[in-house]
Amino acid sequence: MKVALLGFGVVGSGVAKIVDGAENDEMGDISIKKILVHTPAKMRQDPRCVVDINEILDDPEIDVVCECIGGLEPAHTYVKEALERGKSCITSNKKMIASFASELFPLAQEKGVALAYESSVGGGIPWIANIERIRRLEEVKSFRGIFNGTTNYILSAMDQEGSDFAECLQKAQELGYAEADPSDDIDGFDVRYKVALSCLAAFRRYVKPEDIITWGVRRISKQDFIWAKDHKLSIKLVGQARENKGGLSAYVLPLMFRNDHLLSNVSANFNALELDSANLGTAAFVGQGAGSLPTAHALVQDILDVNEGRRLDMSQAKPAELKDPEAASYYLRTKQGEFFDQAGVIKEQVGKDAYVTKPLPLSRINDLAKQAGDDGLFLAEVEL
Amino acid sequence: MKVALLGFGVVGSGVAKIVDGAENDEMGDISIKKILVHTPAKMRQDPRCVVDINEILDDPEIDVVCECIGGLEPAHTYVKEALERGKSCITSNKKMIASFASELFPLAQEKGVALAYESSVGGGIPWIANIERIRRLEEVKSFRGIFNGTTNYILSAMDQEGSDFAECLQKAQELGYAEADPSDDIDGFDVRYKVALSCLAAFRRYVKPEDIITWGVRRISKQDFIWAKDHKLSIKLVGQARENKGGLSAYVLPLMFRNDHLLSNVSANFNALELDSANLGTAAFVGQGAGSLPTAHALVQDILDVNEGRRLDMSQAKPAELKDPEAASYYLRTKQGEFFDQAGVIKEQVGKDAYVTKPLPLSRINDLAKQAGDDGLFLAEVEL
């Protein structure tokens, strides 16, 4: 089976390293034939490099296209074109696949080829594969987890060292855990894509990323950690979803929860993903959520599955309208305490500018938090 | 595909419940044809019950035998006979399969049938499946984990409530987590079988259970928890193994380790299993380690894999001689402090009858602890 790589950055070069370096028989006749790079200068990196996507799309020998470019375009167009031409596609691009899932999976089904995205959620954690395995026998009821290693590194450092957010973000950037523009991580968008993709795996629902209520950790402060510690709570950025009779709920929010819970001891840049199903109860998967080799490992696992003829069956997948989860209490830090008090949602003030709300629908606190006109507002769900 | 169940207890009836109750198409044409029970009186439970094993062995329609009897015999003879007759076998019987692996896997290979044991380690945790998946691409270097839910329940309760061992064991027995004769759990034999089986999955090595140095938690006391807490350590019963140039080491011992580690927050009757491999780094799997439905779920997963034609390839598996792991420090509580002091292994006394040793080979402290002639001795490895 001949593979083409689109992109030869951190992930793409990891894939090449694993496939080229395979010593055992596992890889069989799988090999990388072409690698798309975007400038002629980069062609010197490897004799298999090409700069024209058509050299890959028009090559009938290439069975599988592995997309590791990132971003929406041209990644989306390339994958769509490859599927149209009957090539299986594998992607680690969470933003692209989460945004175009409802277009691309039916296309793959129609063309009878595979479309796989293990590496786009949880890096080296076999999250999608284990969800699919469990679903052979029973329905997944809910999932939740720490989907973003960058923010988890920052929150762990703030918790352990008592440092402030800006300092920990800078350290994460120096270590290469955070991008120069960290918005996708710290504002929760990265988690949002992964939650949408996990909903597809767990519930066979196409969730639009922009429908998922999302609050990040950009405004978290030392004060919030001090209050949490006093109440034996940990703070993590958590993505979660649950399907029940009322419909599907999915959201991304900092969560304050008991510090003797498993997720509390997930530190540094690890991911930890939990799910609940009828017979298994709670199962959790913990590992490297990003990085060249863990992500590349997941991509190559997808290549092996495609080579074995495995296809994700998305024929039952349907668009979803999200509902509110069960009413919950929220922790708010805002200069606009009076605004929330007038709205009648405050249960008590718990510190300077800090409040815990009465149990509320998520959409209610989300609307109020947006209307409050406070750029410095920090919002978290509290499990007391 | 026609399945026969051997045994209709907690696990067997769970398997029947899942297979009979399957609503979706997943189960395809898989059905349970016969169920072996051991007394005619039990035949009234289900019209498919038989009391004579030959009714199953002689039935050419039966493709797969699912052994959930437990114990060495007659489970071993039945599985061997079934393999001889070209039937695939699935077992949740860790003691039997760990003890006879080097006989039964080559027989299955010779007969071209499957032999699967997912449910015998980690209950509902897809531990063996995930090891096999990782091994498609890279070698597992080491594993360690909490393999026994009963002792983990007892240790968690002692830690949280400050109760003593006998009290927590009794509570575990009342809740049905511990057997009337709890030796297999609290003396570490259950973990020993699971470590042997994990060595087969992770390293393709047949390890004799009796070769694995094993110390349980029967003699643990409040005093040990107090000392551990003072040093920010947790205590768990841990099975572990590592393969390196020096050879394979595998052992079962209470482990005192930093209480901010993931394994520290694994409470109640959960299992948590960790492994290390080259590209993935550390990955961990957490879930229900026992119970009717989680274990039955794992058995039915094996049935589905056999139905898809999946076979574990044990053709490279070889017998292993165990070596000592790297030298480590040990915590000892014993009335025979003088004996250990004379042997020159004590680093310091840390409490009444309690000592921490110098770094030692495991076989050395194991030999001394057996020679000391102290029935009340408690031994743990310490990661300081």
Automatic annotation (TrEMBL), chains A, B:
Catalytic activity: L-homoserine + NADP(+) = L-aspartate 4-semialdehyde + NADPH + H(+)
GO molecular function, one term: NADP binding
Enzyme class at the top of the EC tree: oxidoreductase
Domain Aspartate/homoserine dehydrogenase NAD-binding: 7-118
Biological process according to GO: methionine biosynthetic process; threonine biosynthetic process
Pathway: Amino-acid biosynthesis; L-threonine biosynthesis; L-threonine from L-aspartate: step 3/5; Amino-acid biosynthesis; L-methionine biosynthesis via de novo pathway; L-homoserine from L-aspartate: step 3/3
Keywords linked to the UniProt accession: Amino-acid biosynthesis, Methionine biosynthesis, NADP, Oxidoreductase, Sodium, Threonine biosynthesis
Binding site for NADP(+): G7, F8, G9, V10, V11, G12
Active-site residues per Swiss-Prot or TrEMBL entry: K194 (proton donor)
Domain Homoserine dehydrogenase catalytic: 126-304
Chain residues that bind NADPH: K94
InterPro entries (alphabetical): Asp/hSer_DH_NAD-bd (IPR005106), HDH_cat (IPR001342), HDH_CS (IPR019811), HDH_short (IPR022697), NAD(P)-bd_dom_sf (IPR036291)
EC number, UniProt record: 1.1.1.3
Entries under Gene3D superfamilies matching the protein: 3.30.70.260, Dihydrodipicolinate Reductase, domain 2 (3.30.360.10), NAD(P)-binding Rossmann-like Domain (3.40.50.720)
Residues noted as binding L-homoserine in the record, renumbered to the chain: E179
Pfam family, any one: NAD_binding_3
Family of this protein: Belongs to the homoserine dehydrogenase family.
NCBIfam families reported in the protein's UniProt record: PRK06349.1
Protein name as it appears in the record: Homoserine dehydrogenase
